[in-house]
Amino acid sequence: MALLRAALGRCACAFWLAVAFDAVGLTVLLLGVFVNVFFYDFLIYAGSIVIFMSLVWWIFWYTGNIEVPQDELEDDVGLKKDTNRLGLFRRWSSRISQTFRRSSGRTSVRQLDSLSVKESTFSFPPPSAAHVKTLSEDVSAEVHFNQAQGTADTAT
Q: Can you tell me where the transmembrane regions are (predicted)?
């Protein structure tokens, strides 16, 4: 029993479900092919679908039994930290940022906190009534409707 369990791996349930789906699907498929019934096409399609669904259980069984050494797994997802390389990158980044601050003349956040910065108030002047036009004023200025001409066109 222990040998069978070791051969099947950790996901024995998925293995047995995949085997059962394959057996039932193959049985139904072969019944549709060799038995002379009027719904043979249904049996052929149903058997094929059940065999296809067994692939899900085979994939579960296979992926459930993949074994990765702990060292590779930790290194792959970034759980191990290389402190020498990390410290090198931090020092390099801080030196570059200090160089940019000095060359651009910017003040740091600490210096901004210590300085009192006054807010400048700027507002747009209010619009004068001479410059504001409404849509109806523009339309009435551009369109000249002639009542006599309008009725003559509709009568013909």
A: 12-36, 42-61
Instruction: Please say whether the beta carbons of 65 and 7 come within 8 A.
Output: no
CA dist list (Å): 28 to 25, 35, 36, 99: 5, 10, 13, 76
Q: What is the largest CA-CA distance in the chain?
A: 107
pLDDT digits (tens, 9 = 90+) for 112-154: 555 554 555 556 666 666 666 666 665 565 555 555 555 555 5
Residues 26 and 129: their CA atoms lie apart, in Å, by 87
Cα 18 from Cα 23, distance rounded (Å): 9
Where helices occur in 105-134 by DSSP H, the ranges are: 109-114
Integer Cα distance of 62 and 52 in angstroms: 16
Structure-token match 């409404």, residue found: 134
Task: State the Cα–Cα distance between residues 51 and 55, nearest whole angstrom.
Answer: 7
Mind giving me the DSSP string for 73-84?
A: HHHHTT-S--HH
Tell the residue number behind the tokens 């049985």, with chain if given: 27
**What pTM, to 2 d.p., does this model score?**
0.46
